[in-house]
Specification:
Distance between the termini: 24 Å
Shape: elongated
Number of strands: 6
Number of domains: 1
Strand content: 15-25%
Largest sheet: 4 strands, antiparallel
């Protein structure tokens, strides 16, 4: 259940998409050539079976990554506000976390950056594995996992930057498609 602030105590200040078209295009332009390179390299080195295996593993990893990403948002929200929320997980559509209560803008900024801590540790781990003598398919799966983590965090970084000018007098309400910022009156 999504709680909307009552209009008596709050005034809508701004509303913006949490994943604008320009950001989607940017991420697709980065990820598509890399994914194509991985697939073609695996096809040339290991054959069709490993290419299909890599593709299936990549799809499963993307969904697991998405779930873990949203779970980190949920746990960060619970730790900061003491209130819960719900993860809407879908295999064929976008998954997302919706808090059951609003929170202040500085709190929401921390919640948005929660998954980035995990990505930074995973990035260090992937960097170490790249220099170890491991099969390329394992390196590619780790790199692809890191790239898909970046996709989810790109919108989080965007929201973090958009909310940098708001303080504790502003309340943030998150929806699947946009973020609403209210001013306490």
């Amino acid at each position: 259940m999504l709680v909307r602030p009552s209009s008596d105590n709050h005034k809508l200040v701004t509303k913006f998409k949490n994943l604008p078209l320009g950001l989607v295009i940017f991420v697709v332009v980065i990820v598509s050539p890399v994914m194509l390179f991985f697939l073609l390299d695996i096809l040339n080195r290991y054959g069709l079976f490993f290419s299909v295996t890599f593709l299936i593993c990549s799809i499963i990893i993307m969904k697991i990554n998405t779930f873990l990403h949203e779970k980190i948002h949920q746990k960060t929200h619970e730790a900061i506000t003491g209130k819960s929320g719900k993860i809407h997980f879908r295999w064929l559509k976008n998954s997302y976390f919706i808090p059951e209560s609003e929170c202040y803008a500085p709190q929401y900024r921390v919640i948005a950056l929660g998954p980035l801590i995990t990505i930074s540790f995973f990035g260090v781990f992937t960097s170490i594995v790249l220099f170890l003598p491991a099969p390329n398919i394992i390196k590619y799966i780790l790199l692809f996992t890191l790239l898909t983590s970046f996709i989810g965090s790109a919108s989080d970084l965007y929201v973090f930057i958009k909310l940098r000018k708001y303080n504790n007098t502003y309340i943030v309400l998150d929806t699947p498609s946009h973020v609403e910022v209210y001013k306490k009156v």
